[in-house]
Design brief:
- There is one protein chain.
- By secondary structure, this protein is an alpha/beta fold.
- The chain has a single domain, classed as 3-Layer(aba) Sandwich (Glycerol-3-phosphate (1)-acyltransferase), CATH 3.40.1130.
- Helix content is about 30%, strand content about 20%.
- It contains 8 helices and 11 strands.
- The strands form 3 sheets. Strands 1-10-7-2-5-3-4 form a 7-stranded mixed sheet, with helices on both faces. The protein has a two-stranded parallel sheet with strand order 6-11. A two-stranded antiparallel ribbon has the order 8-9.
- Strand 3, helix 3 (about 70-75) and strand 4 form a beta-alpha-beta unit.
């Protein structure tokens, strides 16, 4: 999987193994390929880059109700994306736990078009509040190329297709992007992802002071700082990943 795309994990700062972290993964993409390869396997050398840390990727609880598939994803280190599961990991004494959250979630998958750098973050503050409650440092992560491995049927806001997708997502909790790419023996159509490089850059940690009952203003301050750090991370590395210099990160 690592060599097929290929996928690369880039470290920009050390992470203290005695501290717990929340890694915000952006963008979600269609199938969160970069997050799975980097944080659920050792294909890109996570343990060598960040010794002493154990990553746990959060996934919609719905998928843990399916027999056999549930056991497969649990073996890969995935945990349900509910507060109880995340709180259990972040409350462990001694640190060394890295909870990975695809912040944009299923809704962001509907914007996963090649060339798009749009993230659902402007009103996403739950992960910030969780970090403050447990004193877990926040780490922005941006995965360049995540949106390039699949084509998606055009679904701009205001169209009937997007209306249906948004309503299904609000009811079921999962989104249904209509995507395609290549086949196994041909390159014109299929569900196999394109062989496009994915570079996942792990930013520097943002120190978060433990505060079990943060005020709205305190929450907004940390959230704003996180957005600024993510933007800086994007700007510093976009040129190295083949992104045009005039491309900007868009927050929704």
């Amino acid at each position: 999987m690592r060599d097929y795309f290929p996928i690369k994990l880039v470290k920009t700062a050390d992470l203290d193994p005695k501290q717990n972290y929340i890694l915000g993964f952006h963008p979600h993409g269609v199938l969160v390929v970069g997050a799975f390869a980097n944080f659920c396997t050792q294909a890109t050398g996570f343990s060598q880059l960040f010794p002493g840390l154990e990553p746990y990727l959060l996934m919609l609880p719905l998928w843990f109700r399916a027999p056999f598939f549930r056991d497969y994803i649990m073996c890969a280190g995935l945990v349900p994306s509910d507060k109880n599961s995340a709180s259990y990991l972040l409350s462990r004494e001694g640190g060394g736990n890295a909870v990975v959250i695809a912040v944009g979630g299923a809704l962001e998958a509907l914007d996963a078009h090649p060339g798009a750098h749009t993230v659902q973050l402007a009103n996403k503050k739950g992960f910030v509040k969780l970090a403050m409650e447990y004193g877990a440092d926040l780490v922005p992560v941006y995965s360049f190329g995540e949106n390039e491995v699949f084509d998606q049927v055009p679904n701009p806001r205001g169209t009937w297709l997007r209306w249906i997708q948004d309503h299904l997502q609000s009811i079921m909790g999962i989104s249904l992007p209509l995507f395609h790419a290549r086949g196994i023996f041909q390159y014109s159509f299929g569900l196999m992802p394109y062989r496009k490089p994915i570079t996942t850059v792990v930013g520097k940690p943002i120190k978060v002071k433990r505060n079990k009952t943060p005020s709205a203003e305190e929450l907004d301050d940390v959230h704003q700082l996180y957005m600024e750090e993510l933007t800086q991370l994007f700007e510093e590395h976009k040129g190295k990943c083949g992104i045009a210099e005039d491309t900007q990160l868009i927050f929704l």
